[in-house]
Amino acid sequence: QVQLVESGGGLVQAGGSLRLSCAASGRTFSNYAMGWFRQVPGKEREFVATISGSGGSTSYADSVKGRFTISRDNAKNTVYLQMNTLKPEDTAVYYCACTLGNYRAWGQGTQVTVAS
Q1: Residue 102 burial (CB < 10 Å; 0-12/13-18/19+)?
Q2: Fewest 10 Å CB contacts: which of 38, 64, 75, 115?
Q3: What angle do CA 111, 75, 101 make, to 5 degrees?
């Protein structure tokens, strides 16, 4: 099993930036695709970004494309989400997830609040 711990959330003004981190346990981190998702109370969890195990392939939701960047450091077992030009509608709990085949694990989430 993989355990994931997110950090880096907080309160920021609209137009500002935050960088989220997700540290993973285990020795096979590079085998897993990693992703970021977010959820607002009363709504379904939605996809934000994903990155392949090698880091060579990324994908983004249209709502964050051009503003957010996902990256990973396999030597540190960590995936990052750099969030720029934040908007109030980006306010949510952000979760990281790892995926390998049918296996998926989630972190506990970190709150991001963007004030207008």
Answers
A1: exposed
A2: 75
A3: 70
Q: What is the pLDDT of residues 60-116, one digit of tens each?
A: 999 999 999 999 999 999 999 999 999 999 999 999 999 999 999 999 999 999 999
The amino acid that residue 30 corresponds to is S
Phi, psi of 84 (to 5 degrees): -115, 165
Measured CA to CA, the distance from residue 108 to residue 116 in angstroms comes to 26
Cβ-contact 39, 92 below 8 angstroms: yes
Residue range 4-38, pLDDT digits in tens = 999 999 999 999 999 999 999 977 899 999 999 99
Phi, psi of 62 (to 5 degrees): -60, -30
